Amino acid sequence: MQVFHNKSKVIITCNKRLSPYLQEEVKALGYVIERSFATGVELNITLKECIKLNLNLRCASQILYAVKSFKAVTPDDLYKEIKAIEWEELIDFSGYFSVTSNVDNPNITTPLFANLKVKDAIVDRIKEKKGIRPNSGSDANKTVVHLYWKDTDADVFMDTSGETLAKHGYRKIPGKAPMLEALAAGVILASNWDRKSPFINPMCGSGTLAIEAALIATNRAPGLYRMNYGFMHILGYNEEDFFAERRILKDQVIKNIDLKIIASDLSEDAVEVTRRNAKTAGVDTLIEFEVCDFELTPVPENGTGVVVFNPEYGERLGVHSKLELTYKRMGDFMKTKCKGYSGYIFTGNPDLAKKIGLKATKKIEFYNGKLDCRLLEYELYDGSRRAPLIDA
């Protein structure tokens, strides 16, 4: 089957506001972006090239390889067009597949109905051609077919990722309210960190920011922590292509690096979760773990670096006085202990942000789930430079 060597439209999706950082990653891997949009990018590449992207991208969610584009007004139109595709050349008729969709069509009241039409069309086609009905369900760990249907425009894709790429595979213990790995990577890429100077993560929680920093600095790609992708369950897959890419990932890891990453938290349990997740990722020896109030987090002096907080956001209305004090203390800590550093606070609460007492030089937009958030950047001048302005 030549599908792995045929060029087609490929959509790489990501969470909203991660697109700029996804674009940087894709370009760094040598690919030409045909189009970019709020939740992803479009390329024109082969299915085989999707293997490399799946293993390397930190900010992506899914990598979708287009099989067919067509017009469809009704569910019956959809069924007819889907059934005309040579699924017996793409899906193992003795295997298993699932269907996902993004549907905005006036004739469809629920995406589940569209999924059912797609599933029926695929099953009927394969049964006619091979005499066997493939199994189907909701699990995304085998072959995954994705439908995009807006008004009358429809695209059918093979989801080459399967399970989302936004989870990087090392975090076996999530901890309390963890930051998604793809988001943490985006936050780090949005900072001024040079991947050599100290990276300080007070209030580390389950350690995602500190671990992602270590992975980025040592060039450890997400593909090192995962052995199952959607492309592996498409007919024509050659496992040697996967293992060849994986060998490249192993060879590019920076093993001897002079790096200081410090993760601290008041909770012993949180620090232990961070330590265990870091060990799974193979970067525990690169991180210093501290159980302490964030004000006591050790910060190397006489240099530059980055300090990143991801505190609780609290309620948008009726802010708790305890969190107000916490945000003020974060500002005081950065002013007094982090001179010469770039400071960052990731928050979804603009009212609490006013309590920090520093003037943000940048307010970088992100979403954490559906919550509108900002990564606030602060230049923490040392004694030789002008003191930062205070927020009004």
Assign a percent range to the helix content.
25-40%
Shape: elongated
Task: Report the order of strands and helices.
Answer: EHEEHEHEHEEEHEHHEHEEHEHEE
- What is the mean predicted local confidence, pLDDT? 93
Largest sheet: 8 strands, mixed
Helix count equals: 10
Distance between the termini: 64 Å
> What class, by secondary structure content?
alpha/beta
> Which stretches are poorly predicted, pLDDT < 50 over at least 5 residues?
384-390
Strand runs, count: 15
Q: Output the radius of gyration.
A: 24 Å
Domain THUMP: 62-160
Protein name: Class I SAM-dependent RNA methyltransferase
Pfam family, one: UPF0020
GO molecular function: methyltransferase activity
What this model shows, in words?
This protein has helices at 19-28, 47-56, 75-83, 111-130, 181-190, 208-217, 239-251, 268-281, 321-337, 350-353; strands at residues 7-13, 35-37, 40-46, 63-71, 96-104, 135-137, 143-150, 153-159, 199-201, 261-265, 287-291, 306-309, 342-347, 362-368, 371-379. The chain is of the alpha/beta class and 392 residues long. The strands form two sheets. It has an eight-stranded mixed β-sheet with strand order 2-3-1-4-8-7-5-6. A hairpin with a 2-residue loop joins strand 2 (35-37) and strand 3 (40-46). Helix 2 packs parallel to helix 7 and helix 5 (181-190) crosses helix 6 (208-217).
